Amino acid sequence: MPGEPVIYKNVNSSFIGTDLEQRLRAMSATTLVIAGITTDHCVSTTTRMAGNFGFATYIVSDATATFERCGPDGKYFSAEQMHETALASLHREFATVIDTVSALAKL
For position 1, what pLDDT does the model report? Predict the structure, then answer.
């Protein structure tokens, strides 16, 4: 939206090389709701850092997505498998995984 801050990043985490944490601290933000792509890369890295920084962090499962992958041994992993395992890895460790309906209900 016009006037809305835009933060550009060059690595997986939205916190590295940006002033995101400082902006959030200046706003006295304590809770973050994370959405975006890719679940197992940028979303995961940002979520992990947010949790480590002490923010109450929610990741919105149906507002995140990823792509299929092929492991180093050639094993295929569907986008759904990658997405679900990334969410499972984050849930209750770095964030609480919720869906859009639940996120909107918390507003």
Answer: 87
Give the domain CATH number at 61: 3.40.50.850
Answer whether residue 43 is part of any domain: yes
For residue 42, give the amino acid letter: C
Compute the distance between CA of residue 18 and CA of residue 10 in angstroms, rounded to an integer.
9
Strands 69-70 and 76-77: antiparallel
How many domains, in total, are found in the chain?
1
Is 14 contained in some domain?
no
What is the average pLDDT score of the chain? 96
Phi, psi of 59 (to 5 degrees): -115, 130
Nearest to 62 by CA among 29, 19, 103, 21: 103
Domain range enclosing 92: 20-105
Beta bridge partners of 98: 60
**For 33-52, how does the pLDDT look when each residue is reduced to its tens digit (9 = 90+)?**
999 999 999 999 999 999 99
